[in-house]
Amino acid sequence: MIDQLKALEERLDSVKQEYLLAKERHEFLAQYDLYEEWKQLKKMERELKAKLGLN
User: Fold this and answer.
1) Of 5, 10, 21, 37, which one has the fewest beta carbons inside 10 Å?
2) How far apart are CA 24 and CA 48, in angstroms?
3) Other C-beta atoms within 10 Å of 15: how many?
């Protein structure tokens, strides 16, 4: 599960970078999609941390 958490955190970092790039380029649809993915990943991260007792 810790490997899953690390992979999830890496994906979160990647999505955040993509989001910032889209924001810089004023790509509003891409921003929205990436923000929605980011929210879902954060939710998954919280759930996984709760399962691992890392809160």
Assistant:
1) 10
2) 31
3) 20
| HSE-CB of 41 using CA atoms within 13 angstroms | 19
Main-chain phi, psi angles of 16, to 5 degrees: -60, -45
What's the token pair of residue 26?
Answer: 């004023």
Residues 6-46: pLDDT tens digits?
999 999 999 999 999 999 999 999 999 999 999 999 999 99
Locate tokens 């599960």: which residue?
A: 1
Q: What is the pTM of this model?
A: 0.84
**Res 55 pLDDT > 80:** no
Tokens linked to 21? 């790039």
- Could you give the dihedral angle defined by the CA atoms of residues 21, 22, 25 and 26, in that order, rounded to the nearest 10 degrees? -150
